[in-house]
Design a protein that fits this description.
The chain is mostly helical and 122 residues long. The protein has one domain: Up-down Bundle (Four Helix Bundle (Hemerythrin (Met), subunit A)). The chain has 5 helices and no strands. It has helices spanning 2-36, 44-68, 71-89, 93-113, 118-121. The two termini are 32 Å apart. The mean pLDDT is 83.
């Protein structure tokens, strides 16, 4: 009976961690996408500051997200953020906005891909 209760407890802990993973991943990525979308319509002089603020938020969330997501996907988004920031700092706001669109696409794909399915499990 003790083994059954222990197994049941472990099962519920794992289910709880899975639900937390889905919630945290979904809300974090959705928040980043919502904050990135208005940057596409900003004036040129405001793009650099907005991108650096968004990249700082990504850096804060990246550590926790890398626990739940594939490392290659997180690094892909990180590289796209770095490219977007470097373009904004070299005073190429149109190219930075194009790169930001790529970041938004990567984040959206990441959010959709991380729902549990047989492809993610095996």
């Amino acid at each position: 009976m003790k083994r059954f209760i222990s197994a049941l407890f472990l099962f519920f802990v794992l289910i709880g961690l899975t639900v937390f993973n889905l919630y945290y991943t979904h809300t974090s990525i959705t928040q980043l996408v919502k904050q990135a979308t208005p940057i596409l319509d900003m004036e040129e002089q405001n793009v650099t500051k907005a991108l650096s603020d968004l990249a700082a938020q990504w850096e804060e969330k990246r550590g926790m997200l890398s626990l739940f997501l594939h490392e290659a996907s997180v690094e892909q988004v990180n590289a796209a953020f770095a490219e977007s920031l470097s373009l904004a700092e070299t005073e190429k706001p149109d190219e930075a906005k194009a790169s930001l669109r790529q970041v938004i696409i990567f984040l959206t794909e990441l959010r959709e891909r991380e729902y549990p399915n047989l492809g993610n499990v095996f």
